[in-house]
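Protocol step 4 of 6: record predicted structures for both targets in the notebook before any analysis. Target 1:
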Amino acid sequence: MTTHIANKTSLPTRERIIALWAEGESNNNIATHFGITRHTVSNIVGNMMERGHLLDIKPGGKPRERAKPNIVEHIEFQKLSKPSTSAVEIQATLLNDRVCTVDNLPAKSTIGDIIKNDLNYTYKKRTVIPEESLTEVVI
C-alpha cells in the first residue's frame, strides 16, 4: 500500500487557475499548463464557486477566537504564581475570582492554546546552575 502526500497549491496559483477558468479555458488545458491533475483544477473551481473565496478553511471547525485580555492576564498570573497549575485549576480560579462566568469560561484546550500561543510558555523545565559551580576555584 502506498501513501500519497498531497502538495498544497499556493494561493497565487489558485488565483491564476480561476482567472484562466473565467476566461473560458478547459480544465484539461489549465491542468496541463500548471502540471496538476484535471481533478485538482475541478476541486479548486468547485471550492471557489461554493465558498466564494480561495482561502483555506482550517479542518476541524472554526478558528479559535482571541481570549479577552483580562482572561489572558489572569491565566498568566496563575502560571507565574504556580507554574504547575493545571487547566482545570485555572478554570476554577477564573470562576471563583469572577473573571469569567460559566457561559464564557474557556475550555481546557483553549487555556492550553493561550498558554502556548498567546503567552509563549513551554512545558520545558528550567534548570538552576548551583552557585558553587561558578566559583574561581572550581572554574
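Target 2:
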Amino acid sequence: MRNVTDKATFKRGLQLKNRIIMAPMTTKMSFFDGVITKDELAYYGLRSGEVGAVITAAANVQEDGKGWEGELGAYDDAFLPGLSKLASTIKTNGTKAILQIFHAGRMTDDSVLRGTQPISASAVAAERPNAQVPREVTVDEILTIIENFKKATERAIKAGFDGVELHGANTYLIQQFFSPHSNRRSDEWGGSLEHRYRFIEKLVDEVLETVDQSGVKEFIVGYRFSPEEFEEPGIRFEDTLFLVDQLAEKGLDYLHISLADYTRKSISKAYQAKSMLAYVYEKIAQRVPLIGVGDVRTSKDAAGLLEHADFVAVGRALLIDPHWGQKVLDGQDALIRTTVSTYEREELVLQNGVWGFMENMMPDRLNEEK
C-alpha cells in the first residue's frame, strides 16, 4: 500500500521525497509579455519546500500558443532568466520543479494573440461562447510546433527544472489533435483513432529524444491527459484507454490524469463499475507511474486516491493552505485550513487569476468573514 510519506524514484533517476505533488493551476500572474513576476515567484515559493514536486501553470511554446493574459512564456531564450528564478524558487528543501508546457490551439482568440487568428488541427470552433474559428495548420506548421516543444524542453533543462509535463489535457492543442471534434483532417494527421494519435506519438518521441540526447541527468518527462469530452463527436473513455495504453510503452516518466474529482465515473455506460482513475490505473498495469488528482482535501482523500495511483496531485487545498502537505505528512488534519476569506488573499498570494478560479470553481470554500 502506497503512503504519501513514501519516497519514489522515476525511471530517469529523479527521486521525490514524498508522493504529494502540487497540481498545475493557472495563475495569470505573469507580465503581458510572458515574463515571470515577483508575485508569481512568491506564490510558488509559499507552496514549495514541503511537497515532493510542484508542476507549474502552463507555459506556451510559441507566441500563437498563448491562451490568456498573464501566461508564462517559454518560447524564447529571453525567458530563461525568469524561468531560472522560478525553478530555483520551487526547489526549496528538496522539492522538485516541473515546467508544464503547452500550446492553447483554438482555446484562445485574436485579442489575446494581438490580431493573429488562432490555429488548430482543423478549422472547427470550440463549443464555448464566442469561440473563434481557428485556421487549420499545415503539415510544415505541425512539425514546427513539435520543434518548439523540443526547444521549450531545452530551455527547461537550461533553467534548472527537474522535468517537463506535456499538457495534453483540458482541450488545448495536443488534445485537439486527438479529438474527433477538433481534428477533421483527411491526411496522415487525422481521421482514424491511430492517425489522430500520430501528433501525440511524434511529439512524445521527439521530446524524449531531446532529453536523452541532452546529457542531463535525472530530468523527467510527463504527459497530462483528460479522460473524455462531452462534445459530439468527442473523445470517449475507450479512446483514452487506447491512448494511455500507447503512452505507457513510450518511456515517459509518468502519466497525469486531469480530473475535478478523483472518484468520478465515465459518462460511458460501459465503464460504470469503478472510477475512471481506477480503470486507467488498471490499463497502465504499472508500466508507468500515474499521478491522480481531483478534490483531495484530507489525508483520507489522499489515501483513497493512492489506491489507484502512484502520486497524489493537490491543487485547491494548497491554494487555501500552503502548508497542507506538511500537515498531512505529519497526520495533523485538524490543523488544515479549509476556507479562505478576502482578508487573507494578500497573505496567501492569491492574485486576480487564482482568485477568479476560486470564485468559479470552489465558492463553498470562500469565507467573507475575517
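Step 5 preliminary note on target 2. Residues 8-338 form a domain with the TIM Barrel fold (CATH 3.20.20.70). The first strand starts at residue 8 and ends at 9.
Proceed to step 6 after PI sign-off.
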